[in-house]
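Standup notes
- DV: blocked on the single-chain target, sequence here:
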Amino acid sequence: MVKTYKYLGLDFEDNLRWNLTKQRLLSKAKGRLAMLSKALSEGLSFQAALNVWWSMVVPVLNYGSEIWGGTSFREAERVQLEAGKRLLGVSRTMASAVVRGELGWWTMRAQRDMKMLMFWARLIRMEDTRLVKQIYRYRKEQKIKRVNDWCSLVQKTLDSLRLGHVWHTELVGDEVAWKKRLKKSIRAREEMEWKAKLEEKPKLRLYRTLKFDLEQEEYLNVIKDSEARRLMTALRGGTNMLAVEKDRWKHKDLKKRTCSVCANGSTEDELHFLLECTAYERERRARDQRIRTATDFDFRKMEGETDWLAQMMLGVGCPNTSKRQFIQRETAKFVELAMQKRNLILYSNSD
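- DV (later): unblocked, structure below
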């Protein structure tokens, strides 16, 4: 008896596990990711790299997932996470929830769920005379189902989206309406799971005050300098070179993770670096002056209003698009200059 059979680029296995297909797709996707990483190192823009990811890597990972997409494929999640970190230029230790949050990415599982359920709805709309429709009816009506049976996986996925009743009614409507309904349900599930992940990590205390929706952050396209953009992401995401993060690895109490730059005993966290540390006062005043001139926002008058200032500089607190983007660029410029100064001070103090 034949154990596997290859058809249209998919390896059909007698155990319905699709391991051979996933291994082959994974290998091909990793090869393309390596090409993308090389292009990024040679100066490829963020938006161009993002386009390459969606057009050259994602289609490989999701190839044929209408058929096998209900099965587990953790390796694909790891590839997406690695790609996200390379696009953002951040450390490998950056929290996965931050990577997905900054880019507004669904999990790979969610993408496969979308493709599989769109195919299922198309199958429902087929004429009953079609062979594939007849096979589907036969499999659905069977009382005994295997764990990896396609019908069982479709039903399980619908249940996870709170659409389990549609499995029985098969009222999917037209393609446009079904796609819109699916997107809404999948987005709700993804955001719920993503927010739960944010709550798991204490170091994301600042990020939770800045990020509320699973959508791509505007600053990623506004800030063109890759280093400034990387530092902004690191500051927002809590994985950076400040004492609040570095001393966490040494298991120091939060209050003991003090700033060695101004040495006034304050915890060197992201808001101390951005708003308070006296070592960067000249750079901070220059930043605030430029922002006041261009936007009429006087940050100096809002000293002490740390939540408001954090939203304005690191979040989306400003409702005016042009002013908000100007503030994002100025904040990134300050972060880059201040971080350079911080490194020089710490290096000179270590001599």
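- Follow-up: The first strand starts at residue 4 and ends at 7.
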